[in-house]
Amino acid sequence: MRADYLAKRFGVFVLIVWLAATLNFFLPRLSGQDPVRVKLLQQAQLGGYVQTGIEAMVKEYEQRFGLDKPLWRQYLSYLRDVARLDFNYSIANYPRKVNEIIGEAIPWTVGLLGTTTLLSFGLGTFLGALLAWPRAPRWMRYLMPPLWALHAIPFFLLGLILIYLLAFRLNVFPMFGGYSPGAFPGLTLDFVGDVLKHSILPAASIVLVATGGWALAMRGMMVTTQGEDYVVFAEAKGLKSLTIFLRYCVRNAILPQSTALALALGQILSGAVLVEVIFGYPGVGTILFLAIRENDHFLIQGIVFTVVVALGLATFLLDAIYPLLDPRISYRRK
Amino acid sequence: MEQSATSSSPGTGTARSARLAGALRYLRRNPSLVVGIVLLSGLVLFVGIGHLLVDTSKARPLSAPGIRPPSLQYPFGTDRQGRNLLAVMVAGTPLTLRIGFIAGFLGVGIGSILGFVSAYYRGTVDTVIRGIADIGLTVPGLLVLIIIAVSIKEGLTVDQMAIIVASLAWLNPTRTIRAQVLSLRERGYVEVARLSGMSGPEIIFKELMPNLLPYLGATLVNAVSNAILASIGLEVLGLGPIESPTLGMTLYWVNYNAALINGWWWWWLAPIVIILIVFLGLFFLTVGLDEIANPRLRRTV
Amino acid sequence: MTADVLRVQGLTVHYHTPLGAVRAADNISFSLRGGERLGFAGESGSGKSTTALAILRLIKSPGRIEAGEVWLDDCNLLALSEEAMRQARLARIAMIPQGSMNSLNPVMRIKRQIADALTDHGTRLPRRQLEERARALLQSVGLRSEVVDMFPHELSGGMKQRACIAIAISLRPRVIIADEPTSALDVVARVQRELDASVILVGHDMGLMAQFVDRVGVMYAGKLVELSPVREIFTKPLHPYTQMLIATLPSLDQKGTFRGIPGLPPLLRDLPPGCAFHPRCPHAVERCRQEAPETREVRPNAWAACHLL
Known about the structure:
The complex is a heterotrimer.
Chain A: H1 2-29, H2 35-46, H3 51-65, H4 71-83, H5 98-131, H6 144-151, H7 155-169, H8 189-226, H9 229-236, H10 241-279, H11 284-293, H12 297-325
Chain B: H1 12-29, H2 31-53, H3 85-121, H4 123-138, H5 141-151, H6 158-169, H7 171-185, H8 188-195, H9 200-236, H10 247-256, H11 265-293
Helix pairs in contact in B: 2-3, 2-11, 3-4, 3-6, 3-7, 3-9, 3-11, 4-7, 5-6, 6-9, 7-9, 8-9, 9-10, 9-11, 10-11
Chain C: E1 4-17, E2 20-33, E3 37-41, H1 48-55, E4 63-72, E5 75-76, H2 82-91, E6 93-96, H3 110-120, H4 127-140, H5 157-169, E7 175-179, H6 185-195, E8 198-203, H7 206-212, E9 215-220, E10 223-229, H8 230-235, H9 240-248, H10 286-290, E11 296-299, E12 302-304
Parallel strand pairs in C: 3-8, 3-9, 6-7, 7-8
Antiparallel strand pairs in C: 1-2, 1-4, 4-5, 9-10, 10-12, 11-12
Helix pairs in contact in C: 3-4, 4-5
């Protein structure tokens, strides 16, 4: 029964991957002509780039994608390339390949997103649970309005405000980038410290906003859970207040909260992309921004596809873990 | 039989003032709704009065000297391309809001239909619709929008932006409305209606809809808020209608011209404040509407 | 039948809603003797569940116990500290919840749910022995001992109810309050005899009462309108409401149209003046509209609140 559930989820994942690749292929071609080819030729005419490079690219492109071949042939070879994780060359940064560029940016984004998501989810859930505990200290009530207000604004907006206040005005943190220009990348303490310093503001923009959201959601779930019959019976059993709070309320409220996390990943990522752009943080967001600016279609497609797949994978993993939390799931087949 | 103390007595005057008193009393218990309405009305007022005070053609580049800090002549200052920023805000805010409303309404419209159909008729229809919505939600919306926008990059207009955003805006409403209809469907009165011979569409309109209305309202406001966020996101990335003075485009120019570092604080302050008001206003409105829709969330003193 | 185990005096519970105070239970007084089975019967909203919850001090905001005393042996439960009351629950007075569909924690195995009650009441036993206790308890209510390792969703409704009963008796309480125990009445009966405990049975099914209890208390609109031995409730009901209730019970010898009691129970927030039943009472007189009747012992051991008696 568990295998069934996992297989279904994995199937969904594969479906997403295929859908992403397909959309990536067809959408640009919707306008009738192949925009990539048009852009490539345009760039070649603009002459801003290495001429020979562009011409070689156009030739290779035409050869490889055989634009005289029927569409389905192009589609199949595209799929084959994607399966090999070959996203072609970056138009703007020729001769670098798209994979290379994405590969460099991913650790930054994973680092930023990973830590901030875990932090805000953990902190937010914890706070939310506390806010719902009748024995919580009074002053905690005053945390609610600022958390509320904060979580309504987009991440990047807070980012802009933080840049101005803390980086520009007060000069406490650096304004942008992943590390100071000229710093030597490596696993030295200096460099790591530098990276951390540059990461604080972008991380703060995400964490300060997202925590509020999770806290409010968890509090809502706790309130609902506290009204459930099993909590009433737990009290009738004369259980200690802490036991009820932890094992009956929190333990049950966390289930929909985890589902919400899996569903929110896409949104969090979208927000993080904008944060990276604002801060010039060298992650996936910034290279996407630059790629858009320079009409680097291959890079754009590569990034979007990679991100979609990564998210699909993350969602799949979260889904796979869920039955461990909720014993009712594996047995759903009743 | 029981007599209600607030029953309307003969004379419509008393009935109306009683209803008004009841409404005011409710508003006091639902502060979020009030805050939301106040914020959004303030914004509408700003735009309305602004249109009277400022010539919106001044929102175009080269209509004023560049980089002037706020003064009596230019209350919001000017930007690098010589736009009068007050004019930009007055002209751009309704544009941004319009994108949000069009996309939000379209999204909720489609979402309601799909959600209803899915929840009411169940079976394969339900599986298909729900499957598509679930998969669609796993994918980060902004990225899909980017791909679409990049593909059609030739001279985007405000309305085209709205359609693009709408293409994804129906996903969440479909899910939430489907869930709501599902829970309502289980309630007794639907069974009763069906047994008493009401047809499907009749049940939908006469029984389910009235109960869903406040919930639809909350979903709508939520969808508008998400749509505005998506459109601003696209614009900040440079994929918006370049010619239009929307809020997101203004931020794009702010970023492009490094206005933050150059200390031209008035350039970015105005759009940020207005965006803040928009989102906070919509948020409080959503919370307020949620409260009407779901009385169980009411705070017990 | 010995001394009083439980003595409730003047128990009053109000729910404070934005629209006014709802008098869910009004001046409830009764005694429960050792080894006795007392039933509380009434429609939905009559106040029977509220009374049961109030005795256990489980009323939550916006509800509040406004007045009254609940004497368990020689101890007023309503005057105890929070902690002392917590200890008293389950150990001295236990509850079997209504419709045990959702009364068990869905993410905990049954044995844990039995064990945590024992542990939180001071039982210091290693896990192995706790599990054995759990098995023994389950077997005593007629469940297989494999149930200990199961989750609630793996059990049928009846099994869940029995599991709840097992939990309720785990500390051998003096009083058991059973809220509409439709499916496991025989278990409750047996358990009560073994523990020599007293039972309060809350329900709306008069037929159930007839089978099981010694005395019946009839509740209407938050008030206890009659309290008599079960036979007399059925053969010589005192209060007009009780009389109409009995009259509406279908019987095998009578044939005819099925009739209910005309009218609707009043809004507890907006009770009629005087006797709460007078709008629906066929014998109501002027006095009933003005003055609320007091509960009097009309016959030996039979109490009722009506002006006409």
